Amino acid sequence: MTKTIKVALAGAGAFGIKHLDGIKNIDGVEVVSLISRDLEKTREVADKYGIKHVTTDLADSLALPEVDAVILCTPTQMHAEQSIACLKAGKHVQVEIPLADSLKGAQEVVALQKQTGLVAMCGHTRRFNPSHQYVHNKIKAGEFNIQQMDVQTYFFRRTNMNALGQARSWTDHLLWHHAAHTVDLFAYQAGSPIVKANAVQGPIHPVLGIAMDMSIQLQAANGAICTLSLSFNNDGPLGTFFRYIGDSATYIARYDDLFTGKEEKIDVSNMAVSMNGIELQDREFFAAIREGREPNSSVAGVLPCYEVLHQLEQQLNGRWGEALPAMAGSAIALYLIAVCAGGVCARGQFD
Asked: DSSP E strands: which ranges in 76-140?
C-alpha cells in the first residue's frame, strides 16, 4: 500500500490525543474520522487536529469506504467487541492495551484476525519504548540475560479519574490493564514463556469495586523471575519503574528514559526515529499495513499475556480449577502436566 493510509480514531481522551500527536509526525498517514461519546468535546479536538468527520458512533466511521484502519482508545470493556467490529468491516485495527478484559474476548479477536488476514495489533507500548528496546537489543546480541525484573506500577487514583484528571465513565483495572504491560514485557524480554504465576490483592474498594493494590510473581521457563507491585493508593512518584537485574548489568527504565543501576543515564536517543513510545507503536502498525506483515505486538503475539492474566484472575477469585481448561495447550498448562507427571503438587508450585 503506497497511498495515504486513512485512519479513524475512537476515543478523544488522554490516550487518543497522544496518538494524534504521534501520528502528526508520520508521513503518509491521515486521521479522517474522530469518534468519542461527547460530540462537542470531540469536535473541539477534531478542529485542533484538522479532522473533518466527527461522530459518537464507531459504526459511522466503519461505514466510510475511505477508512483503511482504526485505532481504538476506548474503555477497556469495549476493546474486544470494537476490535471485532473493525475486522468485520474490513478495517485494520490497533487497540490500546488491554486487548480485552477476558481471555474469551482476546481469543475471539485473535480467531477473527486469522480468518480475515487483516493487521490487528494491541498497544503493548513497552515493547516500543526506546529504553526497553535498548535492553531488548542487548539480550538479542547475547550481551545481557535477565535474572530478575522488579517492577512498580504506582498511581494515586482513589476516585475514577483518567490521566488528565478528568472523570471516567468506566473503571480501570490493575490486573487487566496495568499488569498486562509487565506480564507481556517480561516474557518478551526474557524470550521465554511464563510458566509460574501467583498473585495476591488488597481490599476491594467499596465504590469502584476493584482491588486498589496487587502483587504478582512470575517465572519464565528459562528461570528468570519477575516481581510486580501495583497500586492506585500511592501518594508519591507516579508511573511504572522497571529494574532489570541481569548477569552482566543492571538497568532502570522509566518510560522512555534508561539508567544504570547506579543511576547513570544511558543515551537511547539513537534507538529509533522518535523517543515517543506511542509514536513508535503507531509507526509499527502502519508499516505492517504497508508491508502486509504481522506487526510486533500483534493480537496473536500478545495472547499468551492474556492467558496468564486469566489464570491470575481465577486464582484471585478462588476459582483455580476453572483456569486450567482455558489454558489447554499454553505454556502454563504444559508446565503443570510436567510437574504432575513428576509427582509434584501443581498448586504448590504456584502458591
From this structure: 92-96, 120-123
Specify burial of residue 346 (Cβ count, 10 A radius: 0-12, 13-18, 19+).
middle
What is the rounded CA–CA span in Å between residue 27 and residue 74?
Answer: 25
Q: What is the side-by-side order of every strand in the sheet holding 53-55?
A: 53-55, 29-35, 5-10, 69-72, 92-96, 120-123
- Our CA angle for 171, 57, 33, nearest 5°, is 105
Query: Do residues 204 and 210 touch, judged by C-beta distance below 8 A?
Result: yes
Q: Which three cell numbers stand for residue 82?
A: 470494537
- For residue range 84-123, list pLDDT tens digits in order: 999 999 999 999 999 999 999 999 999 999 999 999 999 9
Give the sheet arrangement for strand 225-231, strand by strand: 194-201, 213-220, 225-231, 146-154, 239-246, 250-254, 257-260, 265-266
Instruction: Identify residue 99 by its one-letter amino acid code.
Output: L
pTM of the model: 0.87
Q: Note the Cα 40 to chain centre separation in Å.
A: 29
How much is the pLDDT for 339? 36
Residue 233, classified by CB atoms within 10 Å of its CB into exposed (0-12), middle (13-18) or buried (19+), is middle
pLDDT per residue as tens digits for the range 250-295: 999 998 899 999 999 999 999 999 999 999 999 999 999 999 999 9
Residues linked to residue 229 through DSSP beta bridges, in sequence order: 152, 215
Distance CA 297, CA 295 (A): 6
Q: Check: CB of residue 194 under 8 Å from CB of residue 331.
A: yes
Residue 239 and residue 256 in contact, taking contact as beta carbons nearer than 8 Å? no
Give the amino acid at 97.
I
Asked if residues 100 and 80 have their Cβ atoms less than 8 Å apart, the reply is yes
- Judge whether 12 and 75 are in contact, CB under 8 Å: no
Place of cell 540475560: 145
How far apart (Å, rounded) are the C-alpha atoms in residues 344 and 214? 27
Give the chain's radius of gyration (CA, Å). Answer: 20
- Neighbouring CB atoms inside 10 A of 42's CB total 20
Q: What is the pLDDT of residues 121-152, one digit of tens each?
A: 999 999 999 999 999 999 999 999 999 999 99
